[in-house]
Amino acid sequence: MALNQSKTQAAFHRAQELMPYGVSSNFRYWDEVQTPVIARGEGAYVWDMDGNRFIDYRLAFGPVILGHADKRVTARVVEALANGNLFAHTHPLELKVAERMIRMCPGVEKVRYANSGTEATMHALRVARAHTNREKVIKFEGNYHGFHDYLLFSTASTPAGSLGSRRSPLSAQNTSGIPAAMRDLVINVVYNNFEGLERTVKAKWGEVAAIIVEPVAGNFASVMPEKGWLELIRKLCDEHGIVMIIDEVKTGFRIAKGGATPEIRSALRPWRKASNRGSRDNSPRT
Ligand SMILES: Cc1ncc(COP(=O)(O)O)c(C=O)c1O
Q1: Same domain, 179 and 51
Q2: Atom 8 (ligand 1): residue with closest C-alpha?
Q3: How far is the CA of 92 from the centre of ligand 1 (A)?
Q4: What's the predicted TM-score (pTM) here?
Q5: Tens of pLDDT along 165-209?
Q6: How far is the CA of 252 from the centre of ligand 1 (A)?
Q7: Contact yes or no for 143/247 (Cβ under 8 A)
Q8: Same domain, 73 and 152
Protein backbone atom coordinates (compact mmCIF):
# COMPACT_ATOMS: atom_id res chain seq x y z
CA MET A 1 0.00 0.00 0.00
CA ALA A 2 1.39 3.39 -0.97
CA LEU A 3 2.18 5.63 1.98
CA ASN A 4 0.31 8.84 2.50
CA GLN A 5 3.07 11.45 2.44
CA SER A 6 1.06 14.50 1.43
CA LYS A 7 2.24 16.72 4.31
CA THR A 8 5.82 15.55 3.92
CA GLN A 9 5.83 16.27 0.20
CA ALA A 10 4.24 19.68 0.67
CA ALA A 11 6.94 20.54 3.21
CA PHE A 12 9.66 19.32 0.83
CA HIS A 13 8.29 21.45 -2.02
CA ARG A 14 8.22 24.48 0.27
CA ALA A 15 11.79 23.66 1.35
CA GLN A 16 12.87 23.69 -2.31
CA GLU A 17 11.66 27.28 -2.55
CA LEU A 18 13.68 28.23 0.52
CA MET A 19 16.87 26.15 0.28
CA PRO A 20 18.96 24.75 -2.61
CA TYR A 21 17.55 21.28 -3.46
CA GLY A 22 15.32 21.73 -0.41
CA VAL A 23 18.03 20.41 1.91
CA SER A 24 20.88 21.69 4.06
CA SER A 25 23.45 19.31 2.57
CA ASN A 26 23.44 17.71 -0.91
CA PHE A 27 23.88 14.32 0.76
CA ARG A 28 20.35 14.70 2.15
CA TYR A 29 18.75 15.05 -1.26
CA TRP A 30 17.51 11.66 -2.49
CA ASP A 31 15.24 12.65 -5.38
CA GLU A 32 12.16 14.73 -6.16
CA VAL A 33 9.77 12.24 -4.59
CA GLN A 34 11.52 10.37 -1.79
CA THR A 35 13.55 13.07 -0.03
CA PRO A 36 12.22 12.82 3.51
CA VAL A 37 11.25 15.58 5.91
CA ILE A 38 11.60 14.08 9.37
CA ALA A 39 9.56 15.51 12.22
CA ARG A 40 10.88 13.44 15.15
CA GLY A 41 12.91 10.45 16.21
CA GLU A 42 12.99 7.96 19.04
CA GLY A 43 15.45 5.12 19.44
CA ALA A 44 16.05 3.48 16.07
CA TYR A 45 13.00 5.09 14.45
CA VAL A 46 12.09 8.37 12.76
CA TRP A 47 8.68 9.70 11.77
CA ASP A 48 7.91 11.87 8.76
CA MET A 49 5.39 14.71 8.81
CA ASP A 50 2.52 12.32 8.03
CA GLY A 51 3.33 10.10 11.00
CA ASN A 52 4.90 7.30 8.90
CA ARG A 53 7.53 5.46 10.92
CA PHE A 54 10.87 4.33 9.41
CA ILE A 55 13.93 2.53 10.73
CA ASP A 56 16.71 5.13 10.68
CA TYR A 57 19.79 3.40 9.29
CA ARG A 58 21.51 6.79 8.92
CA LEU A 59 21.39 7.94 12.55
CA ALA A 60 22.55 11.43 11.50
CA PHE A 61 25.35 9.80 9.42
CA GLY A 62 26.76 8.21 12.56
CA PRO A 63 26.86 10.32 15.69
CA VAL A 64 23.52 9.28 17.22
CA ILE A 65 24.97 6.02 18.51
CA LEU A 66 22.51 5.71 21.40
CA GLY A 67 19.49 6.29 19.17
CA HIS A 68 17.25 9.33 18.92
CA ALA A 69 16.00 11.18 22.00
CA ASP A 70 17.91 9.01 24.45
CA LYS A 71 16.60 10.17 27.83
CA ARG A 72 20.04 10.30 29.48
CA VAL A 73 21.48 12.45 26.68
CA THR A 74 18.44 14.75 26.66
CA ALA A 75 18.62 15.26 30.43
CA ARG A 76 22.33 16.21 30.30
CA VAL A 77 21.81 18.60 27.38
CA VAL A 78 18.89 20.32 29.10
CA GLU A 79 20.89 20.57 32.33
CA ALA A 80 23.81 22.18 30.49
CA LEU A 81 21.58 24.60 28.55
CA ALA A 82 20.13 25.94 31.78
CA ASN A 83 23.58 27.40 32.47
CA GLY A 84 23.98 29.12 29.11
CA ASN A 85 24.55 27.70 25.65
CA LEU A 86 27.55 29.46 24.14
CA PHE A 87 30.61 31.13 25.57
CA ALA A 88 33.74 32.70 24.14
CA HIS A 89 35.70 30.98 26.91
CA THR A 90 36.84 27.56 28.03
CA HIS A 91 34.18 25.53 29.87
CA PRO A 92 34.87 22.87 32.53
CA LEU A 93 33.02 20.27 30.42
CA GLU A 94 35.69 20.66 27.73
CA LEU A 95 38.32 19.49 30.20
CA LYS A 96 36.21 16.58 31.34
CA VAL A 97 35.57 15.35 27.80
CA ALA A 98 39.20 15.87 26.75
CA GLU A 99 40.42 13.86 29.76
CA ARG A 100 38.09 11.03 28.88
CA MET A 101 39.07 11.02 25.20
CA ILE A 102 42.76 10.92 26.03
CA ARG A 103 42.14 8.06 28.44
CA MET A 104 40.16 6.11 25.86
CA CYS A 105 42.15 6.71 22.66
CA PRO A 106 45.69 5.36 22.52
CA GLY A 107 46.96 7.83 19.91
CA VAL A 108 45.53 11.00 21.47
CA GLU A 109 47.59 13.26 23.72
CA LYS A 110 45.68 16.52 23.36
CA VAL A 111 42.28 17.54 22.07
CA ARG A 112 41.23 20.48 19.92
CA TYR A 113 37.46 20.70 19.38
CA ALA A 114 35.96 21.52 15.99
CA ASN A 115 32.42 22.16 14.79
CA SER A 116 32.54 19.53 12.06
CA GLY A 117 34.68 16.80 10.60
CA THR A 118 35.40 19.06 7.64
CA GLU A 119 36.91 21.66 9.94
CA ALA A 120 38.89 19.05 11.86
CA THR A 121 40.62 17.59 8.79
CA MET A 122 41.23 21.07 7.36
CA HIS A 123 42.99 22.15 10.55
CA ALA A 124 44.90 18.89 10.86
CA LEU A 125 46.24 19.38 7.36
CA ARG A 126 47.23 22.95 8.06
CA VAL A 127 49.13 21.91 11.18
CA ALA A 128 50.87 19.14 9.20
CA ARG A 129 51.89 21.63 6.52
CA ALA A 130 53.16 24.11 9.08
CA HIS A 131 55.07 21.39 10.91
CA THR A 132 56.74 19.86 7.86
CA ASN A 133 57.04 22.95 5.67
CA ARG A 134 55.74 20.76 2.82
CA GLU A 135 52.47 21.18 0.94
CA LYS A 136 51.23 17.93 -0.60
CA VAL A 137 48.94 15.36 0.92
CA ILE A 138 48.51 11.69 0.14
CA LYS A 139 44.92 10.51 0.39
CA PHE A 140 43.28 7.26 -0.62
CA GLU A 141 40.70 6.72 -3.32
CA GLY A 142 37.20 6.42 -1.90
CA ASN A 143 38.14 8.00 1.44
CA TYR A 144 36.12 11.09 2.31
CA HIS A 145 37.41 13.75 4.68
CA GLY A 146 34.84 16.54 4.38
CA PHE A 147 33.92 19.10 1.78
CA HIS A 148 36.76 21.62 1.86
CA ASP A 149 38.77 22.11 -1.31
CA TYR A 150 41.92 20.42 -0.01
CA LEU A 151 40.57 16.88 0.06
CA LEU A 152 37.37 16.65 -1.97
CA PHE A 153 39.06 14.52 -4.59
CA SER A 154 38.47 10.95 -5.72
CA THR A 155 35.90 9.99 -3.11
CA ALA A 156 33.40 7.19 -3.65
CA SER A 157 31.03 9.59 -5.40
CA THR A 158 33.57 10.68 -8.03
CA PRO A 159 32.26 9.86 -11.52
CA ALA A 160 33.29 6.37 -12.64
CA GLY A 161 36.12 6.31 -15.15
CA SER A 162 37.73 9.52 -13.89
CA LEU A 163 40.28 7.91 -11.60
CA GLY A 164 42.90 6.66 -14.08
CA SER A 165 44.81 3.43 -13.76
CA ARG A 166 45.52 1.61 -10.51
CA ARG A 167 49.25 2.17 -11.02
CA SER A 168 48.97 5.91 -11.61
CA PRO A 169 45.69 7.12 -10.10
CA LEU A 170 44.43 10.57 -11.03
CA SER A 171 43.12 13.04 -8.49
CA ALA A 172 39.64 13.99 -9.65
CA GLN A 173 37.72 16.89 -8.13
CA ASN A 174 34.32 15.75 -6.91
CA THR A 175 32.53 18.85 -8.08
CA SER A 176 32.95 21.95 -10.17
CA GLY A 177 34.12 24.91 -8.15
CA ILE A 178 37.26 23.32 -6.71
CA PRO A 179 40.29 25.22 -8.11
CA ALA A 180 42.47 23.19 -10.47
CA ALA A 181 45.52 24.42 -8.52
CA MET A 182 44.36 22.32 -5.57
CA ARG A 183 44.77 19.15 -7.62
CA ASP A 184 48.55 19.61 -7.67
CA LEU A 185 48.58 19.29 -3.89
CA VAL A 186 46.69 15.98 -3.74
CA ILE A 187 48.29 12.62 -4.49
CA ASN A 188 45.83 9.74 -4.67
CA VAL A 189 46.77 6.16 -3.90
CA VAL A 190 44.53 3.10 -4.03
CA TYR A 191 43.42 1.97 -0.52
CA ASN A 192 45.20 -1.20 0.63
CA ASN A 193 47.72 -0.97 -2.22
CA PHE A 194 50.92 -1.54 -0.25
CA GLU A 195 53.23 -1.44 -3.25
CA GLY A 196 51.58 1.70 -4.67
CA LEU A 197 51.92 3.56 -1.39
CA GLU A 198 55.56 2.60 -0.88
CA ARG A 199 56.42 3.57 -4.45
CA THR A 200 54.63 6.92 -4.11
CA VAL A 201 56.24 7.81 -0.79
CA LYS A 202 59.67 6.82 -2.06
CA ALA A 203 59.28 9.11 -5.08
CA LYS A 204 57.58 12.10 -3.47
CA TRP A 205 58.20 12.14 0.28
CA GLY A 206 60.13 15.43 0.16
CA GLU A 207 56.94 17.26 -0.87
CA VAL A 208 54.48 15.36 1.33
CA ALA A 209 53.23 16.98 4.54
CA ALA A 210 50.68 14.33 5.50
CA ILE A 211 49.09 11.00 4.72
CA ILE A 212 45.43 11.06 5.68
CA VAL A 213 43.47 7.85 6.03
CA GLU A 214 40.12 6.47 7.14
CA PRO A 215 41.20 3.55 9.35
CA VAL A 216 38.12 1.67 8.13
CA ALA A 217 36.93 3.03 4.80
CA GLY A 218 33.40 3.74 5.99
CA ASN A 219 32.73 5.96 3.02
CA PHE A 220 33.13 3.18 0.48
CA ALA A 221 31.36 0.06 1.62
CA SER A 222 33.31 -0.12 4.90
CA VAL A 223 36.37 -1.69 3.30
CA MET A 224 38.60 -2.94 6.10
CA PRO A 225 42.29 -2.11 6.19
CA GLU A 226 44.26 -5.19 5.22
CA LYS A 227 46.54 -6.58 7.89
CA GLY A 228 49.56 -4.31 8.20
CA TRP A 229 48.12 -1.46 6.10
CA LEU A 230 47.80 1.14 8.87
CA GLU A 231 51.10 0.00 10.37
CA LEU A 232 52.75 0.53 6.97
CA ILE A 233 51.43 4.10 6.82
CA ARG A 234 52.71 4.73 10.37
CA LYS A 235 56.13 3.33 9.43
CA LEU A 236 56.46 5.30 6.19
CA CYS A 237 55.44 8.50 7.98
CA ASP A 238 58.03 7.92 10.71
CA GLU A 239 60.75 7.19 8.19
CA HIS A 240 60.07 10.24 6.04
CA GLY A 241 59.00 12.91 8.52
CA ILE A 242 55.40 12.85 7.25
CA VAL A 243 52.44 13.52 9.57
CA MET A 244 49.94 10.64 9.76
CA ILE A 245 46.37 11.91 10.06
CA ILE A 246 43.94 9.19 11.16
CA ASP A 247 40.47 10.46 10.32
CA GLU A 248 38.14 8.87 12.87
CA VAL A 249 35.14 11.06 12.11
CA LYS A 250 33.22 7.89 11.19
CA THR A 251 34.98 5.23 13.24
CA GLY A 252 35.63 7.10 16.49
CA PHE A 253 33.58 5.66 19.39
CA ARG A 254 31.52 3.52 17.01
CA ILE A 255 33.85 0.73 15.96
CA ALA A 256 35.11 0.44 19.54
CA LYS A 257 35.36 2.59 22.64
CA GLY A 258 38.67 4.14 21.61
CA GLY A 259 37.82 4.19 17.91
CA ALA A 260 39.72 2.16 15.34
CA THR A 261 43.15 3.11 16.57
CA PRO A 262 43.34 0.41 19.28
CA GLU A 263 43.61 -1.93 16.30
CA ILE A 264 46.99 -0.39 15.56
CA ARG A 265 47.94 0.16 19.19
CA SER A 266 51.24 -1.62 18.73
CA ALA A 267 52.19 0.67 15.88
CA LEU A 268 51.22 3.76 17.83
CA ARG A 269 52.81 2.83 21.11
CA PRO A 270 56.45 3.63 20.29
CA TRP A 271 55.44 7.11 19.18
CA ARG A 272 53.43 7.71 22.34
CA LYS A 273 56.27 6.52 24.57
CA ALA A 274 58.70 8.85 22.84
CA SER A 275 56.40 11.82 23.28
CA ASN A 276 55.75 10.95 26.94
CA ARG A 277 59.48 11.16 27.54
CA GLY A 278 59.24 14.73 26.33
CA SER A 279 61.54 14.11 23.39
CA ARG A 280 59.53 16.38 21.13
CA ASP A 281 60.16 20.08 21.09
CA ASN A 282 56.93 21.67 22.27
CA SER A 283 58.39 25.06 23.04
CA PRO A 284 56.57 28.01 21.49
CA ARG A 285 58.35 30.05 18.81
CA THR A 286 59.49 33.35 20.13
C1 LIG B 1 35.74 10.05 7.56
C2 LIG B 1 35.08 11.39 7.51
N3 LIG B 1 35.82 12.50 7.65
C4 LIG B 1 35.27 13.74 7.63
C5 LIG B 1 33.91 13.90 7.42
C6 LIG B 1 33.31 15.27 7.39
O7 LIG B 1 32.56 15.48 8.54
P8 LIG B 1 31.43 16.61 8.59
O9 LIG B 1 30.29 16.11 7.74
O10 LIG B 1 31.09 16.72 10.04
O11 LIG B 1 32.02 17.87 8.05
C12 LIG B 1 33.09 12.77 7.27
C13 LIG B 1 31.66 12.91 7.07
O14 LIG B 1 30.94 11.98 6.79
C15 LIG B 1 33.69 11.49 7.30
O16 LIG B 1 32.96 10.37 7.13
Answers
A1: no
A2: 117
A3: 27
A4: 0.88
A5: 888 898 999 999 999 999 999 999 999 999 999 999 999 999 999
A6: 11
A7: yes
A8: no
